[in-house]
Amino acid sequence: MKRFAVVAVAALMAGAAAYAAEQVKPDKDGWYTLYNGKDLDGWKVGDNAGSFKVEDGLIVANGNVAHLFYDGPVMDHHFKNFEFECDVMTAPKANSGLYFHTKYQEKGWPGTGYEAQVNNTHSDPKKTGGLYGIKDVFEAPAKDGEWFRYTIIVKGKQIVLKINGKTTADWTEPDDWPQDKGRKLSSGTFAIQGHDPGSKVCFKNIRVKPLKD
């Protein structure tokens, strides 16, 4: 009986390992899926974890300030040069953001990495498609209640943001750029921002394609 239990456990572990390996395989074009469409497996949030939930296959950010960090197996959640994309839909007056080259922290606004702004009608004048506080956009290129494709490309010192395939921000970090509160290119993971209880934003089809250094 004990031997059977050991064999069964080994089989389960082998199956889990095979499943994990399958999860980190790219498609034929080199894209890795970061969100499975079912739950938050592979993602991690600290304080105010209730600000994120999965509804009808979507990641929904709505609640007190919180950040959902990718913590899964793809590239060991560590990216340098990449093309990232996801589909986003905002409710009226919603605010959020997509961080990159960041790292997990328990609470507060991420202290490292850059933020790609998500905001079509929130009172903050910095709108969707801008590199927050660096290369801002002041007229939203998308509408509330409609899905739009957000693309973030990092290659060397260059950051390009696109909404529905149209470039909204293109900025190259200077070689002598000071590290202001961590806003400096290096490497790291991605994070989705939960901004406030009045902001509801949905995300789906989250994926990344690593690029050669």
Description:
The structure is a single chain. This protein is mainly beta. It has a single domain (28-210), classed as Exo-inulinase, domain 1 (Jelly Rolls, Sandwich). The chain has one helix spanning 2-23; strands spanning 32-33, 43-45, 52-55, 58-61, 66-70, 82-90, 96-102, 114-118, 148-155, 158-163, 166-172, 189-194, 201-210. Strands 1, 3, 4, 6, 9, 10, 11 and 13 form an 8-stranded antiparallel beta sheet that branches. A 5-stranded antiparallel beta sheet has the order 2-5-12-7-8, with no helix packed on it. Strand 10 and strand 11 form a beta hairpin. The relative contact order is 0.23. The model is unreliable at 4-21 (pLDDT under 50).
Distance between the amino and carboxyl termini: 53 Å
Secondary-structure element order, as H and E?
HEEEEEEEEEEEEE
CATH superfamily label: Exo-inulinase, domain 1
Query: What is the number of beta strands?
Result: 13
What is the CATH T-level topology?
Jelly Rolls
Question: What characteristics describe this protein?
Answer:
Jelly Rolls, mainly beta, eight-stranded antiparallel sheet, globular, 1 helix
Short characterization:
With 213 residues, the protein is mostly beta strands. It has one helix spanning 2-23; strands spanning 32-33, 43-45, 52-55, 58-61, 66-70, 82-90, 96-102, 114-118, 148-155, 158-163, 166-172, 189-194, 201-210. Strands 1, 3, 4, 6, 9, 10, 11 and 13 form an 8-stranded antiparallel beta sheet that branches. A 5-stranded antiparallel beta sheet has the order 2-5-12-7-8, with no helix packed on it.
